[in-house]
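To illustrate the input format used throughout this study, we show a single complete record. The first block contains the structure-token representation of the backbone; no residue identities are included at this stage. The design step must infer an amino acid for every position from geometry alone.
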């Protein structure tokens, strides 16, 4: 399984999960700044360099294709930030 976090809260929730150290995590640049991402130094985490705020279906599909390239055949869980917290 691979996680795709879209918001800072979603990323925090994933990082707090018990399996976060071994689960691949991808996030948008909205979820964490480049500087904070560099500080984390997590080998299992990747960061897109663009925003997914108001992303259309094609943008999400492109992100999923990138994740699939790196994690073939893995299920991807996408944070649903549509309703807020």
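Output of the design step:
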């Amino acid at each position: 399984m691979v996680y795709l976090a879209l918001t800072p809260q979603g990323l925090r929730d994933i990082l707090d999960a018990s399996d976060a150290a071994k689960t691949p995590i991808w996030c948008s640049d909205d979820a964490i700044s480049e500087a904070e991402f560099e500080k984390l130094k997590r080998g299992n985490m990747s960061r897109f360099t663009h925003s997914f705020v108001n992303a259309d279906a094609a943008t999400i599909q492109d992100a999923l294709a990138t994740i699939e390239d790196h994690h073939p055949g893995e299920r991807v869980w996408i944070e649903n930030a549509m309703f807020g917290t």
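Structural context for interpreting the output: The mean pLDDT is 90. Residues 2-78 form one domain.
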